[in-house]
Write a structure and sequence with these properties.
149 residues; alpha/beta; Rossmann fold; 5 helices
Length: 149
């Protein structure tokens, strides 16, 4: 089991490390530029070449069944679900085969509204409750994989 974190603009890096260290799981932070991260034997840092979706491609090419991907990127979530990896959003919402289609449709609809000027693209603030939900969702995903379910 490996935890892959789409690290660019990820607000839950410390929480991912906390869960990974508690369970002895390697965590890979993948980003387009160098960033300060916690240090430790289980923490791996990968800086990919600049370019659209380079970090997404790196993660999608490696994540497999039994791995967990942490991302807010819906197309990346969809790609990782196809490899049977578990995918969790930064707010703790799991992406599943049952909800990824709707998430992709809403993403496209929101982009359309922004492009036509109907929406300013407001994103809700990240809250303590989001952080707590993420910790719980990641812990549950780790436990489920360990149980083999």
């Amino acid at each position: 089991m490996i935890i892959y974190v789409d690290a660019d603009a990820c607000p839950v890096k410390d929480e991912a490390v906390r869960v990974a260290e508690r369970h002895g799981i390697e965590v890979h932070f993948v980003s387009n530029s160098w960033m300060r991260l916690p240090e430790g034997p289980l923490i791996k840092r990968t800086v990919v070449a600049d370019g659209p979706d380079a970090a997404d491609d790196w993660i999608a090419e490696r994540a497999t069944k039994g791995d967990i991907v942490v991302t807010a990127d819906i197309p990346l979530a969809s790609r990782c679900l196809k490899t049977n990896a578990r995918v969790i959003g930064n707010t703790g919402k799991p992406f599943t085969e049952a909800n990824i289609g709707q998430a992709l449709a809403m993403r496209d609809f929101s982009r359309h509204l922004r492009e036509t000027g109907e929406s300013k693209g407001y994103n809700a603030s990240f809250t303590r409750q989001d952080r707590s939900r993420f910790l719980q969702a990641l812990e549950e995903a780790v436990q489920a994989i360990k149980r083999g379910s």
